[in-house]
Specification:
- Helices cover 43% and strands 17% of the residues.
- It is of the alpha/beta class and 351 residues long.
- It folds into two domains: 3-188 and 222-248, Rossmann fold; 197-220 and 255-289 and 315-348, UDP-galactose 4-epimerase, domain 1, CATH 3.90.25.10.
- It has a seven-stranded parallel β-sheet with strand order 3-2-1-4-5-6-10, sandwiched between helices.
- Strand 5, helix 5 and strand 6 (179-184) form a beta-alpha-beta unit.
- Bound molecules: nicotinamide-adenine-dinucleotide (NAD) and thymidine-5'-diphosphate.
- Nicotinamide-adenine-dinucleotide binds next to helix 1, helix 4, strand 5 and strand 7.
- Nicotinamide-adenine-dinucleotide is lined by residues 8-9, 11-15, 35-38, 40-41, 61-63, 83-87, 102, 106, 130, 132, 161, 184, 186-187, 193.
Length: 351
């Protein structure tokens, strides 16, 4: 069926993978990518989309009510896949207000536009909100986040995402707006901005710079290959039930230190260095304020009800990721030659 679909944040890390998947897999859909191109948005993530007939880029801010209303009126979207957000915990600690604006206010602007534009007929419409496992807070050594786990966000980032999730559910309950939400664990893969642990470490290892590990490196994250997340989003968009939440995870928990050891091993091999060389770059630095100890996801609802599971083993995914960064030096160079140096200096100089 012909559909007009709005993807927000499509120039970012995960959004660019979702745009690519939908544009290539569904030629019958017109995909509109709305992105403000903040520091994290990069049209170089989508150079292979520029000549596709079913792809349109719309530069704009999700907090701009008039602009958002105007594109809903013009393109009559059938569905929204909402990824645009401020996404980095460390930045949310230094500048929470941007997270409140984009993640909470921006989400409500989109919800209002969808509600008003679709109000005469909600059938075959869907507002799909992409969220994070961080809304559930921090786990001890055991247990997993389920869809029924109480929200307990601990950082300004996760609190802003939790607020947006609540608002999306409130629009479903109050106005009957058709919605689904998914909460995913940490993603890794190509095109991730090198402020996040894995691409930052790849870049530092390559350039023989210290790898900053917060605290003792014993915090635990569950890691999912980004293309598996994009596939889960495809499945949930098409098969998810109205009003439901689905957790997405990689069944792949690592302490940060073990993860970096693995990454160093792969990098030594790819760069032709002696084994154990890159490990020497590991530097323990002051911990993140309020650092969540452990995230772990129970994704069995998504597997049982909609048939999704991760396709890649971590060893394969991390090799692919390292290969991509080493083969795309210009992409990295263009980022680190901009404001990145200033960001890096201010984030790491006093740690
Ligand atoms: P990202 O920071 O790489 O990309 C965010 C994109 O949103 C950028 O292209 C940016 O330009 C755009 N954007 C930011 N503010 C905007 C605004 N006001 N108007 C329009 N566009 C704006 O983020 P990501 O890692 O790709 O995450 C995408 C989504 O997935 C986010 O909602 C995030 O909370 C969620 N998520 C991320 C992870 C992860 O590991 N990265 C895990 C689970 C969920
Ligand atoms: P990050 O990639 O920022 O994702 P999130 O905070 O959303 O989980 O960080 C992943 C883990 O790595 C987290 O426990 C914080 C830690 N970390 C470091 O130890 N050093 C770093 O330089 C960064 C960016 C993160």
């Amino acid at each position: 069926m012909k559909k007009n679909i709005l993807i927000t944040g499509g120039a970012g890390f995960i959004g660019s993978h979702v745009v690519r998947l939908f544009v290539n897999k569904y030629p019958q859909y017109n995909i509109f990518n709305l992105d403000a191109l903040t520091y994290a948005g990069n049209l170089e993530n989508l150079t292979d989309m520029s000549d596709k007939e079913n792809y349109t880029f719309l530069k704009g801010d999700i907090t701009n009510i008039d602009f958002v209303n105007s594109i809903f009126a013009k393109f009559n979207f059938d569905g929204v896949i909402h990824l645009a957000a401020e996404s980095h915990v460390d930045r949310s600690i230094t500048n929470p207000m941007e997270f409140i604006n984009t993640n909470i206010v921006g989400t409500v602007v989109l919800l209002n536009a969808a509600k008003e534009n679709w109000k005469n007929d909600f059938s075959n419409k869907l507002f799909y909100h992409i969220s994070t496992d961080e809304v559930y807070g921090s786990l001890g050594e055991t247990g997993f986040f389920k869809e029924t786990t109480n929200y307990d966000p601990q950082s300004p980032y996760s609190a802003s995402k939790a607020s947006s999730d609540h608002l999306v559910r409130a629009y479903n309950n109050t106005y009957k707006l058709p919605i689904v939400i998914s909460n995913c664990s940490n993603n890794y893969g190509s095109h991730q901005f090198p402020e996040k642990l894995i691409p930052l470490s790849i870049n530092n290892i390559k350039n023989n710079k210290p790898i900053p590990i917060y605290g003792k490196g014993d915090n635990i994250r569950d890691w999912l290959f980004v293309e598996d997340h994009a596939n889960a989003i495809d499945v949930i968009f098409h098969k998810g039930k109205n009003g439901e939440t689905y957790n997405i995870g990689g069944i792949n928990e690592w302490t940060n230190l073990d993860l970096i050891h693995k990454l160093c091993e792969v990098m030594d091999k790819k760069l032709g260095r002696e084994p154990e060389t890159s490990k020497k770059l590991i530097t323990f630095v002051t911990d993140r304020a309020g650092h969540d100890k452990r995230y772990a996801i129970d994704a069995s609802k998504l597997t049982k009800e909609l048939g999704w599971k991760p396709s890649l083993q971590f060893e394969e995914g991390i090799e692919k990721t390292v290969d991509w960064y080493l083969n795309n030096e210009d992409w990295v160079k263009n980022i680190v030659s901009g404001d990145y140096a200033k960001y890096y200096e201010s984030m790491y100089k006093n740690r």
